[in-house]
Design brief:
4 copies of one chain form a homotetramer. Helices cover 25% and strands 21% of the residues of chain A. Chain A has a single domain (5-349), classed as 4-Layer Sandwich (Chorismate synthase, AroC fold). In chain A, the strands form 5 sheets. A 5-stranded antiparallel β-sheet of chain A has the order 1-2-3-7-4, with helices on one face. In chain A, helix 1 packs antiparallel against helix 4 (131-144), helix 1 crosses helix 8 and helix 4 packs across helix 8. In chain A, strand 13 (278-279) and strand 14 (282-283) form a beta hairpin. Chain A has helices at 38-48, 96-99, 108-115, 131-144, 184-199, 227-236, 257-260, 327-348, and strands spanning 5-6, 11-15, 22-28, 65-67, 71-72, 75-76, 81-86, 101-102, 149-157, 160-161, 206-213, 241-246, 278-279, 282-283, 288-294, 303-308, 313-317. Chain A is α+β, with helices and mostly antiparallel strands. The radius of gyration of chain A is 21 Å and the shape is globular. At the A-B interface, strand 1, helix 3, helix 6, strand 12 and helix 7 of A face strand 1, helix 3, helix 6, strand 12 and helix 7 of B.
Chain lengths: 354, 354, 354, 354
């Protein structure tokens, strides 16, 4: 299990390097009979793709997905869905500044150590370009999930933090601005800030919040495969993620049990949902909500000191077209991973009772 | 994959309910030839067991582990290690306050919904008593890991937060106090606070920090099975955990890339280790450190309103012997889960190169 | 995945050596709400246990199973079912003839080579005693399978071969004789033959045939997890098995397509069922039938030459209480493994369609 | 685990239907640093491809593999190897004879029943065309296996059976004739027979024998993942396979233990190797050999009766370009699956000892 598959029953396996011929994947276990809207899939890919706005990387990659199998007359057949996204932008780059030296806070060094050598063209397999395949699979999972609604959005950029509870936000605003923050005023501040950071040749971190609504009761499997444990794993597997919290999260630590406990309504819903829609690892039908922390992108367009393969100090100039802040493009990736987790547990939940 | 196994190559499967005959598990994949110090295993169990101090639950459970297989003449044989911890404290309790009503922020309701009924004696399978089996397996994994050092400790209780960097702490103090905080002054404050909370019949949350030292380079598998993603999943699978962050974590969000990046020394180590010992999902040889957030225990010894199976409001009095704060006993569990993740990736790393 | 688990959704993990404290296992994924008849489980164990007749080993092992978890008020709870069978017959044996030499056609040599040493008390983990745990799990799987009927029986011992098609046999005769052959006349011949073999201190091979009736259409997953591929794997994992064939099997090789093809009836059943109830890896609703070949037991009660750890020739006298022919006791094991495969695919089939 | 992956550490996932855009797969877990000879891969594909001789189907498919990832400067990188084989022969066929009726002994009926509908263009996913992806992966596995030698060949066609022990055969003859039988005299008889069968519009079954040499001691994992159990599963997952036997196989049933047991030489090898190179599920260093039984191809070019979706009798004329006997083209598939099993266990064996 070399680490390139996710999910047990609704399972995605991905392949591809940032500068190879193609990336893609295989979705195994998607049930038969699902009418697929291919435009919705491409739409999610477009939300992730470079060049979509002034605050993301200006690389040109159309990211068009081609399906090879598993679909027939517009529906899934129950057989594996193979797909590829061809890299159209494979012109011979100059990698000399990467090939023999290690970029700080990148995976260059550990890949060389682990595998004995590496594909040094861009990040190779460690590039976030791999997440395009996740978005394809997640967009299919979303369609499988039917009424469940997954909305991710940017809730923090640097110190700029959206402090309203999600219930007061209008999710229909998310796609109306380049940052993908549902509060348009805050969105403008964040956008301005990212532009300023970009001008410095620097980068900044952020937080993506995700809210999942209309979740049926009973998803998640005790004890190791708790719903939130798998959500956490899924989010932490996204490039640049440093933390995950759900429900009351780290703030819940300072509360007393008598304050924190969610009192029941007579229909089994709760009044406060500090639990974040998950109890004992199993969905309780309330909204699931969680935060995902992204560090600042490691590639800065400034001069920096580092070492080469011989351990000698070298000074390098960061270059290329990179994201000053990763969270606007991370929004569809967070949604995709959440959808994959939910699809997997939805299938698994069919096996709980005789 | 019903969720009761953890790990791929060094794999633990657990069984058992809080009030059944026995809990236990099977460790499959522990390599042959490991000389096991059984006392070290029992010692970790003793760090988790109830009744060990005035600030934990006063239930009496000796938690003695019995090994059934996989050991011969003091060494592991490479065959599965089966073990059980018999419940000695199975006297007929009065469960009437649990049987027909749902305790807030417990798993009672979702188990009934998911499975159609539940073992209502205590928490059944959702009880943290299950983690005793994890501690057994983790203690074996620790011995397999040789020189790697895993130290977990309590870094926060309610608002009381240990703000020193871990490098300034003396880990040898951890076991010298009931809270398991390496700063003895802070430990005393935390202990006093927990006692006060207990007197109120209330509970409080906390944070466990874990530091792993002497980690070889190369553990962790791109892209889904990143080392920190599996650590996060492992921690989030522990009862009452609401959040996980590693390295710079949520605080890293507000930093710029130029500040956050870890500059290399000539030997491949880094000067700042904001990465938390993991780069691109692969250990880089630096210390791994992470925080785990625990919510306040849901069982409060106060009167509370809730609903019964018919959805009618009922008022109940919390009773029994419960932990006012879970983090002191959670320390060995966090270590155990970390050890299981590392053992698994240690074996997997043997397969990376031809 | 060290090899001691079987199944994906209905999953058995076993532990235990022939002469350890206990063997047992964990069944994970058995759906909740199944009323378990514990006597049926013990009854299958009794069909496997030593000492049940004059033609099997005369060792005394009561093989009583103790359940630790996963059951509540007579029903499965959906949580893992942990169980153990304690070895009551652990008296200090004399292993000197095994400890330092390798019994021919046993696993002694390969265990030493693979693991560096071995538990030399009896066969250790390689002993067929491990299959007792499979019988427990299989007996639970059978109850889960409801109307499906699994009947295994002995169809060959040495050259004595039952050549009737299974449709002409009365399965209710199977348990009426010590050999477990449904043709009572042939059963007597086989019994006499096994007794003669035993008198020589020798052993003999045999074939177990298994017929599964009332199978729903749709079990089995293309392309690698074909129903018959998993049945084959299951059977080949039983000690002493050398071959597996289903439907027309090896005899089908010599047929022409025009003869071999199964013509359809108007209700989708077929007229000939040479396919053996499986088409393209998926059950077609017809009877599944297959043969399992068992080699003669390797332990003969005669003098034989072999080598010791130093590679020196030694002459040894086979001793102990062993089966002259393994197939009578293998019948419930074949059934158990078939039940585990079917239970797993039954759960998996719930996920095929949206 | 929807059934389209094979292997645990060296893992192949395949996708693709017989008449879709492309088939292909992802190989995850192939260790880094393996210099790949791409011509050897294409050569194995050519051994499987249609149109290679007068006795196989005359369809025209070049079966050229395109690699998308996982290779860099001629070596594997340790990241997933994605590949595709584009279908060049996708002209609009006439499927009316298949679309609404069920071909006998094909998977048409069960796919419709299992999934609710099916891709009726040819066999869809149930077509043996899927095995092209296995051959690609197997050819890579072979190169990973280094000195191990896997030779499969045709040992029986209809009643024509090669009765010599494999030690008397010259494997270098295998590729010298269209049947892939190493005995040139028998090969000629088989070829003539297949031609005669083809003239009748009929088909015939056969047996492929496989011999694996230079196997290290210690491959295979007790108890469920025995080496021969996984080999059996692998072979039974190939289209049209009805049986598997290794070592003495079904013939061993009639032997006495005293005859069947393999006496040791002083170096740990055995004198007779009736065990077939596997003892207790673990390779013992001797040659592994096994037989795989293939039924006659179900598509006959004759008129036949069958039913349509409404269960009405219809008479159909078989047409198209099909194999009169599948075994010559099955030889590289058997080798590929054997290579995948061995590669997986080779990696797993690295984790057996501390």
């Amino acid at each position: 299990m070399a680490g390139n598959s996710f999910g047990q029953l609704f399972r995605l396996t991905t392949f591809g390097e940032s500068h190879g011929k193609a990336l893609g994947g295989v979705i195994d276990g998607c049930p038969a009979g699902l009418e697929l809207d291919l435009e919705l899939i491409q739409k999610d890919l477009d939300r992730r793709k470079p060049g979509q706005s002034a605050i993301v990387t200006q690389r040109k990659e159309p990211d068009t997905v081609e399906f090879y199998s598993g679909l027939f007359e517009g529906k899934t057949t129950g057989t594996p869905i193979g797909f590829a996204i061809h890299n159209t932008n494979q012109k011979s780059h100059d990698y000399s500044h990467i090939k023999d030296s290690y970029r700080p806070s990148h995976a260059d060094y550990v890949y060389d150590q682990k595998y004995g050598f590496r594909d040094y063209r861009g990040g190779g397999r460690s590039s976030a370009r791999e997440t395009a395949s996740r978005v394809v699979a997640g967009a299919i999972a979303k369609q499988f999930l039917g009424d469940m609604r997954i909305n991710a959005f940017v809730s923090q950029v640097g110190e700029l933090k959206l402090d309203k509870p999600y219930q007061e936000l209008d999710f229909s605003n998310i796609e109306s601005n380049a940052v993908r923050c549902p509060d348009t005023e805050m969105a403008q501040k964040m956008e301005d800030y990212i532009k300023a950071i970009k001008k410095e040749g620097d980068t900044i971190g952020g937080v993506v919040t995700c809210v999942i609504q209309n979740v049926p009761i009973g998803l998640g499997e005790p004890v190791f495969d708790k719903l939130h444990a798998r959500l956490g794993e899924a989010m932490l597997s996204i490039n640049a993620v440093k933390g995950f919290e759900y429900g009351s999260g780290f703030a819940g630590v300072a509360m007393k049990g008598s304050q924190h406990n969610d009192a029941y309504n007579s229909d089994g819903t709760t009044q406060t949902n500090r639990s974040g829609g998950v109890q004992g690892g199993i969905s309780n039908g309330m909204d699931i909500y969680f935060n995902v922390a992204f560090k600042p992108v490691a590639t800065v367009l400034q001069a920096y000191d580092t070492i080469n393969k011989e351990g000698e100090k070298v000074t390098t100039q960061g270059k290329g077209r990179h994201d000053p802040c990763v969270v606007p493009r991370a929004v569809p990736i967070v949604e995709a991973m959440a959808a994959l987790v939910l699809a997997d547990f939805t299938l698994l939940a069919r096996t709980n009772k005789i």
